[in-house]
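U., I forgot to send this yesterday:
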Amino acid sequence: MLPVEARIPDFRKSGEPSYFMNTSAKIQTKGQVTIPTSVRRQAGLSKGDLVNFAFQRGKIVITPKLVIDRSEFPNADDEYTPAQRRMIDARLEAAAAEVRKGNVSAAFDNIADFAAALKADAKQLKGKTRRSARR
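Result:
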């Protein structure tokens, strides 16, 4: 998809009257219709913009479609050095290997079951801590 500048028209600042215009256009052979310039200006539309069509209560409604160019947003590759990225990838792979081995917690049906499992795990770990070993 080609990047399209995303903009939200502010109808109050368009310089056009804020009433609904009653203009007509002819449907061409392939179903094409030219949106009158004054209507395009009020809607903040220009060449290349996308619009959505809907049929509601006997009327055809054309709505500007907001498109976001994802290439302009940073991604994780831009934020990390190659060494950091290798370390992150290695940690993700190690975690995936643990999941493949089955070293994951069981799913819980409700919060009470989850809390009970946490308490049981805490009891098991209590005897393994340094603090309890000194007592």
